[in-house]
Amino acid sequence: MGNRVAREDFEWVYTDQPHASRRQEILAKYPEIKSLMKPDPNLIWIITMMVLTQLVAFYLVKDLDWKWVIFWAYAFGSCINHSVTLAIHEVSHNSAFGHYRAMWNRWFGIFANLPIGVPYSVSFKRYHMDHHRYLGGDGIDVDIPTDFEGWFFCTTFRKFIWVVLQPLFYAFRPLFINPKPISYLEIINTVIQVTFDIIIYYVLGIKSLVYMLAASLLGLGLHPISGHFIAEHYMFLKGHETYSYYGPLNLLTFNVGYHNEHHDFPNIPGKSLPLVRKIAAEYYDNLPHYNSWIKVLYDFVTDDTISPYSRMKRHPKGKVVLE
């Protein structure tokens, strides 16, 4: 169904990613931005409240009919769980407790992981740092789809299925692109998460467990917030690798939409990224950006010039140091 996308490979580039040089230029002109490089302690309370909110939801859905379990998983739980994954993104940058208490952030990330249902936090940290250091790096950046995804999901219908199944591709893609030895923290993350899931099942029942897992699967798939997966780095305009989003869903996503700003200054918490844009407006206002993640999803599925191949890719230079 739909025309086949003509693109048959990624957009290979032979220049460095733009963020390091722009960061140096902005800091030279606006050194006051360095004052924003500090943790955001409000994350601790916000994340704790989100976890507690989902615990209450687990209790409230335990006796509902199945149709209402799935309805609330999509209408409510999906928003919370997707927001929690982006809270974990903040914590992966040590934004909760700061760099001097890095392990506190790892343990807090494992706590934030609980309502998602699948162990995620520790592994995400390991791969996400590589994404920042080696943006688009062949065989390193697991945010880049596999060749199979680019080859197979090449029509309107197949791209729609790809959007629906995004959480599964993000989960399994690292095993094919950049497999890493399992760390002790990943084992701890898994043991704690599985134990939590078992407790939910035995205390509240199967409906609460299904609500939790469905909220994650649905919230990270065909969902308005999931537009950020595609909006951040898919090349809708030739030559532009990273795009920001300045719409209202930033309120639910810790300003992850400010993505050029985030890649330029990954040590600045999401709360302060709008200030980065305000201070250095001439660097950001003229870059292509979005105001609707829903439109991004629609355009990705229907535009026969865009596919999972629409990513800029580069061969790493020099010595590669992985997280």
Automatic annotation (TrEMBL):
List locations, semicolon-separated.
Answer: Endoplasmic reticulum membrane
Enzyme class, one word? oxidoreductase
TM ranges: 43-61, 68-88, 150-172, 184-204, 210-231
Domain named Sphingolipid delta4-desaturase N-terminal: residues: 5-43
This chain belongs to the protein called: Sphingolipid delta(4)-desaturase DES1
- Keywords annotated in UniProt: Endoplasmic reticulum, Fatty acid biosynthesis, Fatty acid metabolism, Isomerase, Lipid biosynthesis, Lipid metabolism, Lipoprotein, Membrane, Myristate, Oxidoreductase, Transmembrane, Transmembrane helix
| Keyword Oxidoreductase among UniProt keywords | yes
**Which GO BP terms apply?**
ceramide biosynthetic process; fatty acid biosynthetic process
Which cellular component, as a GO term, is one annotated location?
endoplasmic reticulum membrane
Major location, coarse class?
endoplasmic reticulum
Q: How does it assemble?
A: Interacts with RLBP1; the interaction increases synthesis of chromophore-precursors by DEGS1.
Q: What is its EC number?
A: 1.14.19.17
**Species the sequence originates in:** Callorhinus ursinus
